[in-house]
Each structure stands twice: as C-alpha cells, then as structure tokens.
Specification:
Layout (H helix, E strand, L loop, with lengths): L1 E4 L7 H15 L5 E4 L6 H9 L2 E4 L9 E4 L6 H9 L3 E4 L3 H15 L3 E5 L5 H9 L4 E4 L2 H4 L4 E8 L5 H11 L3 E6 L5 H14 L4 E5 L5 H12 L3 E5 L7 H4 L4 E6 L5 H14 L1
Helix pairs in contact: 4-5, 8-9
This protein binds iron/sulfur cluster.
The site of iron/sulfur cluster (SF4) has 15 residues, from helix 1, helix 4 and helix 8.
Length: about 280
C-alpha cells in the first residue's frame, strides 16, 4: 500500500509559538504555571506539559500567584486585566491571526456595523472575539442561519479555522440582505493551506487518515473537507486507533494532520501504515 502525506500538515506558526512560550515559562522561576484551558487541542501534548508541571485551569479563580498563559485562541481582554490585578504574570500566546480577527471585530462595532461572526458559538476563539466586540454580534455557522439576518450595514469576521467555502456561502446569502456589506476574511493562511492540500490529496487517494485531537476544531474541519470529496476518511488521535480492516482493499492512503498535531504523532501513523499496509 502506498502512503502519501499532504503537502501542508501539522503544526502551524501560532501553535509553535504558543508551545515555545509555554516551554520557556515552564523553565522560568515564575511558578506555578497554569494555562487558561488546555494549551492546544491535543491531549498527548497537554500530558507532556503536565509532566513538566504545567496545569490547565478553566478560570483565574483560586489562583494566588505564578504565571497564567493565554493560549492561541485568545481571551476576553478583561481576563488579562484581572490577571494583572491579581498580581499574576501573564504570557499572552494569542495567535497574531486571532488577534487580528479580534481587532477587526472591535473596529466594525466601533464603526457602527452590525457584526456577524462566522464560527462555532461555543468555541473559545469565538467567545474571545465576541468579548472584544463587547458582545454586540451574531454568531452563525452555516448559510441557512444567515437567512434571518437583515441590516443596513453588516460587517463580517471569521473564526480563523473556518473553511473558505463556508464563508463564501454565507457571504452569498448576506449580499442581498444589507445595503453595505464589509467582509474581513480572517481565516488564517495556515488553515487555508492545510485545507486545500488535504482536499487535493483526498481527491487522489482511496482513503484518508486525519491525525489530531478529537476536540480540535481545525482537525475536525480537515476531516469534514476530506469526507466531502467522497473519500472514506478516519479521524484518529494516535496510531493505536488504526484498524487493519480499513486498509485491506486500499491501494493508496492519504495522511494529513491538524495544526495542533505534533510531528511525532503524524510520523507514528505514517510508519504504522507502511508496516501494516
Ligand atoms: Fe494561528 Fe492559524 Fe495556527 Fe490558529 S491555525 S493558531 S490562527 S496560525
């Protein structure tokens, strides 16, 4: 069986930066070190950091010193202000692409646009963007939800890991629903490149394996994009989940990984497929 790997797969710039900042904090004397939520949506990496004493908390409540790390998704700016008041040392690992989406959202609200955020309502990145827009936004995930929106001036920003195709469909609906429509495509280039190369590969192989956290939005979207091509797709976190039955009739398997998937997990899957295929 032939194994092909997507041209763009695995860690992106924002995740590499956040992991570097977290490693630096773990080696500093500003302990204890906490992250606000798991540092990335990958359980294996979170476990590695836990072994180095980096724990995650869901809020600042109960913390009395040390360092708090804001992850790539960003956070409500008031949380950072509160951490300062509490005397915590803050490491802001918000991805610059997410920070840009936050700034665009705040500016659109300031300029009087009705803000629409395209993304998953409960996702921490969207929650942070909403906080920067002082809660004055409608969050939608699919084009059908855009049918109910009407406004004079509508502004759009997008969760960085959404697909361009989904954005295109939503913009198509909103075009006829506002006198003025201002769209900031805040999908990050790492996401777009990983999605495009996953789609190209999925169209050329018999089966796709997508490696990454089941709780990772960008990895789940990669799986969906692969499935949408009609190619059988399996989303796994580690090589242990591979099943021999999946590859029994397969000549070529494609492999890709989300932006929060470490290289060693991807390589383990590739090697296992080569040995068992
Ligand atoms: Fe930043 Fe994009 Fe990576 Fe998210 S996927 S952390 S927005 S570079």
């Amino acid at each position: 069986m032939k194994v092909r790997v997507a041209e763009q797969a695995g860690y992106c710039y924002g995740v590499e930066r956040a992991l570097r900042l977290t490693s630096e904090a773990a080696e500093s004397d500003r302990k204890p070190i906490h992250t606000l939520g798991p540092i990335i949506h990958n359980p294996q990496v979170v476990e590695e950091f836990a072994a180095k004493g980096v724990r995650h908390v869901s809020s600042l409540e109960g913390l009395s010193g040390g360092t708090i790390i804001v992850r790539t998704h960003g956070v409500d700016p008031e949380v950072i202000a509160r951490a300062d008041e509490m005397g915590l040392s803050t490491v802001d690992a918000t991805c610059p692409f997410v920070a840009k989406a936050q700034q665009r959202a705040a500016a659109l609200v300031r300029d009087g646009y009705s803000l629409v955020v395209v993304g998953e309502k409960e996702h921490p990145e969207v929650v942070g963007i909403l906080a920067c827009a002082r809660g004055q936004a409608t969050v939608i995930e699919r084009a059908e939800e855009a049918q109910g929106i009407q406004g004079d001036r509508i502004g759009i920003v997008v969760q960085t890991t959404q697909s361009v195709e989904n954005l295109r469909q939503i913009v198509g609906v909103l075009l006829t629903r506002a006198a003025e429509l201002k769209v900031f495509n805040t999908i990050c280039s790492a996401t777009t490149k990983r999605q495009e190369s996953a789609k190209v590969l999925a169209e050329e192989v018999d089966m796709m394996i997508v490696v990454g956290g089941k709780n990772s939005a960008n990895t789940s979207r990669l799986s969906q994009i692969c499935r949408d091509t009609g190619t059988v797709t399996h989303h796994i976190e580690t090589a242990k989940e591979l099943r021999p039955a999946w590859t029994s009739d397969v000549e070529t398997v494609g492999v890709t990984a989300g932006a929060s998937t470490p290289e060693w997990l991807l390589q383990e899957v590739i090697e296992t497929l080569k040995v068992t295929g």
